[in-house]
Amino acid sequence: MTIKSDMEGRWLRKPYIQTPLIPSLYLSKLAGCRVLMKMETCQSSGSFKSRGLGYLVQQTLLHTSPNPGQELHFFSSSGGNAGYATAVACQQYRQKCTVCVPLRTSSRMVDRIRMTGATVISHGQTIGEADKYLHTVLMTQCDTKVEIPIYCHPYNNPIVWKGNSTLASEIIDQTDHEKEKVPSLIICSVGGGGLYNGLVSGFLGAGGHRKKEWKEVPILAVETTGCATLYKSLKAQSLITQQADDYTIALSLATPDITPETLEYANGLYPTHSIIVEDRDAANACIRFAEDHKVLVEPACGTALAAIYQERLKEIVPKLTPDDTVVVVVCGGSAVDCQTLQEYRNNYFEV
Amino acid sequence: MVDKISSTGAEVVIYGNQWAESDEYLRNFVMKSADSTTLAVYCHPFDNPVIWEGHATMIDEIATQLPDQNSLKGVVCSVGGGGLYNGIVTGLKRNKLSTLPVLAIETEPAACLAASLEAGKVVKLESVNTIAKSLAAQFVSEQAFVFANGGHPTKSLVISDAQAVNSTVKFAEDHGITVEPACGAALAVVYENLWDKYLPNLTKSDCVVIIVCGGSATSLDDLIMLRNSL
Lengths: 351, 230
What we know:
Chain A: Its cofactor is pyridoxal 5'-phosphate. Chain A: Pfam families: PALP. Chain A: Belongs to the serine/threonine dehydratase family. The complex is a heterodimer of chains A (351) and B (230). Chain A has 351 residues and is an alpha/beta fold. Chain A contains 15 helices and ten strands. Helices cover 45% and strands 15% of the residues of chain A. Chain A has a six-stranded mixed beta sheet with strand order 1-2-10-7-8-9, sandwiched between helices. In chain A, strands 5-4-3-6 form a four-stranded parallel beta sheet. Helix content of chain B is 45%, strand content 10%. Chain B is globular, with a radius of gyration of 18 Å. The relative contact order of chain B is 0.13. The model of chain B has no long low-confidence stretch (mean pLDDT 94).
């Protein structure tokens, strides 16, 4: 096997895995129906972002022809999981990667990203500032004779949504394979809308003999009150951006806005319910989930789980029975450890 | 743990100071008290070939999930009574991997396989006071001894409770999953840099599979306590 074909063989390997879709005894009891968890925590980067960003890196690699002596150089400006997912994919495909993170990013996360071999630069107070520095300074420094700079937006890219849509395709395959009922509801967290857009396009693209049902499976989009851009945009019927003094502990959801496509889908093109939960509810969900399932998740992920732990499903689907199924996307995320959960317990729940 | 089991709908009876006493009570009293309309079915926690057949599915899956089987150089697992180990060996044999070595890890206070291999026969330990409670079997199944004593390439490794705890805490840090110290024991091969002695000459393209066996008995408070104890 030549070096070139060995490399190309490696590039054909997927940057994400098929994750377990497993029933939760605890969540099912709370919800009064069968709750299945789609465990994106199993991805190599610890979150579903391996699907979207991994796919972006892979597709760019497969469809770009650098000149001899030229290599691709991937750039990401996420402060967390998107940057890490990009870096992990670049490590898998042996590509150069630079991630620019805001100064507030934990050294734990910076070390994690560095371990992949990516270069990590810290700059700016916000993701916005890190992104600007990435574009105006870091990417312009590339010597284009030897490097092709590739910008990887954490969520606002249809290729990222296409990668994320594999989550929905798997849910369909896994459910159809087990001959289980089509779910009554899919629950997911919303930050910028990349995951939501992916799920919608995945379900709309359903095939098979139950495709009509799959194309209409409702999505419950959950945000925190401190970053409720979808919720507010739906109420205002126009795109609302995050305000300067808005704050949430679900930092991975704290994007300045949602994509226009997210609002279009949620505003009538696709059956969607939008709810908001408090930071305290998201924190509680993380603590309960760690106890119930031994998996530590970030508040961004706890946000979706809060819809069940706070028993909010009845307001969305009043007639849920024990025979019905609900799928919750456990989106994952690395920015948590047991100390963080202890702090949440102390801040929110100690008497 | 009792609550977790009850929440499935099962009835939980608490008896005895260690497993052997509860097991005897179950078989001699609880099962015999079942009425004539009930067919009582005893489920040993690990010493049953049917259980090993089930555990062997782990190897069936590994065989299909690994992109390059030739790179596989070993499997690492924790050993309590040997049920998991027996399952792994059963699975390796049925997947044409009979020469693949298994590293069988025990914690020092409950190292009954290592003691048996030393004695040349299955021995019973008087006490098994290990923090890795799920490994606290006083003796291994006969089949585990047979496999480890020449039936299948096996290396027996004994680590300390502290090493199991250290690995449990580090794994939670690295992968966001709370496992029990019984599971941390297998991970200690990497976290405590022990693999070199038992699987020497590994290269970057070689692959070793560690069975992250799991376990539900470690709560968030337990994890925090283990972390603080280091």
